[in-house]
From TrEMBL:
A single cellular component GO annotation: trans-Golgi network
Gene3D superfamilies to which the protein is assigned, alphabetical: 1.20.1280.290
Chief localisation class: membrane
Transmembrane portions of the chain: 12-34, 46-67, 79-100, 142-161, 228-250
UniProt GO BP: phospholipid translocation; retrograde transport, endosome to Golgi
Domain of life where this protein originates: Eukaryota
Descriptive protein name: Solute carrier family 66 member 2
Subcellular location: Membrane
Length: 271
């Protein structure tokens, strides 16, 4: 009787751990963007967040979903990609609205200073359908980003449909999906190196991503996910550790500030 009770407790505990791990895998990737979203809404300033992070994550997760048609992987990872895509679209919508409101307010102040009428304030529209490379991913309305994402998805899906029988294409598709996501930390790593400082970067954010990437990589290994997943997961952990080393090094050995203007380029691992 006691053995049966013990087995039931172990079974319930294992199921609980499994649910927690599943929830962490599905929602853990979007948690760091919650404070970023709240900060942008509070300050009405989106300059500290690079929308190119959204671009990379959208491309990576769309390719990952297409990769599943050629090589099956866990449904949890599929839901993770779907939720990440939704999160990045929400971030894009907020950043676009804030940026356009900021540009409008700036122009209004400029017109008021020159005694011009408020009705004359105009912001040039930058549209996706203009196909102007100078304004790529800097469009005026959220719908233009949706059009771009939809166009990319349709083209990528069509190519995948044509080449689905090619093992080389399928494996390359999977590698590109996870490699793009794994490289998200490198812009911040390079920016820190250029500035010889990690000032303004959220250390808590980097620690959160390091623990998350470590957990994710271990999950990939334990569940025998495709090799592309855990190798790029290891690469993410290495980049995270490198950024943490920069935090230690530049705080212990402060460098002379560089003369050029600090870039606003950020990654998903920095606020």
């Amino acid at each position: 009787m006691e053995d049966e009770l013990f087995d039931q407790i172990v079974s319930v505990f294992n199921q609980l751990v499994s649910w927690v791990a599943a929830g962490a895998m599905v929602f853990g990737g979007v948690v760091p963007y919650i404070p970023q979203y709240r900060d942008i809404r509070r300050t009405q300033n989106a300059e500290g967040f690079s929308t190119y992070v959204c671009l990379v994550l959208l491309v990576a997760n769309i390719l990952r979903i297409l990769f599943r048609f050629g090589r099956y992987f866990e449904t949890l990872l599929l839901w993770q990609s779907i939720i990440m895509i939704a999160t990045m679209l929400i971030m894009l919508n907020l950043c676009t609205n804030v940026r356009m409101a900021t540009e409008l307010n700036t122009k209004r102040r400029s017109f008021i200073a020159t005694d011009s009428k408020d009705e004359e304030v105009r912001i040039p529209k930058r549209l996706f359908l203009d196909f102007d490379w100078n304004y790529f991913w800097s469009w005026s309305h959220f719908v233009d980003y949706l059009q771009c994402v939809l166009a990319f998805t349709l083209v990528a899906a069509y190519i995948t449909y044509l080449l689905l029988d090619s093992a080389l294409f399928v494996e390359t598709l999977g590698f590109l999906a996870v490699f793009a996501e794994a490289m998200l930390g490198t812009p911040q790593l390079y920016c820190n190196y250029q500035n010889k400082s990690t000032e303004g970067m959220s250390i808590k954010m980097v620690l959160m991503w390091t623990s998350g990437d470590t957990f994710k990589t271990g999950y990939f290994l334990l569940t025998q996910a495709p090799v592309q997943f855990w190798t790029c997961g290891l690469l993410q952990v290495i980049v995270d550790v490198a950024i943490l080393f920069q935090v230690y090094y530049y705080s212990r050995y402060p460098q002379k500030p560089v003369s050029h203007t600090v870039s606003h380029t950020t990654s998903a691992k920095a606020l």
